[in-house]
Amino acid sequence: MLRTIPIRTVAMGALALTAPACVDDSVNTPPVAVAGFDQRIQLVEGAPGEVVLDGTGSFDPDGDPVEHRWAVLRAPSGLTLLGEARTAREPRVQLTVPGLYVFELVVSDGLDTSAPDHVNVFAAPPEQQQE
Q1: Is residue 5 included in any domain, yes or no?
Q2: Does residue 78 belong to any structural domain of this protein?
Q3: 31 burial level (CB within 10 Å; 0-12, 13-18, 19+)
Q4: Contact 89, 56 (CB under 8 A)
Q5: CA separation for the pair 131, 128 (Å, rounded)
Q6: Does the residue 55 lie in any domain?
Q7: N or C, which end of the chain has less CB nearby within 10 Å?
Q8: Alpha-carbon distance 95 to 74, whole Å?
């Protein structure tokens, strides 16, 4: 959509003329992915640890809604995100194996895709019980 914005007024006697500028509203600015802060959780023997990833800071400069897409780049157990966890703004992920997990977030506004952002989650091993 094109709209006219006055940018220059030139006086010619008693008449003032305005020269319009054209601004193209159809130019799309890519969205920005924000994967949240790095996290650390403590695993407990016999129970999975849960972490909530946070993509709520992602945005589109044009104000368009964004769709989230999460992926696992690194996991000590071969973790795969399934179903809603791949597309949720704040997916809940169950971790069962200690180690470093690296998640990637990319967002799309339907026209462009963001650069990826990453978040690290360290799952500490269960504490050893003293006997």
Answers
A1: no
A2: yes
A3: buried
A4: yes
A5: 9
A6: yes
A7: C
A8: 13
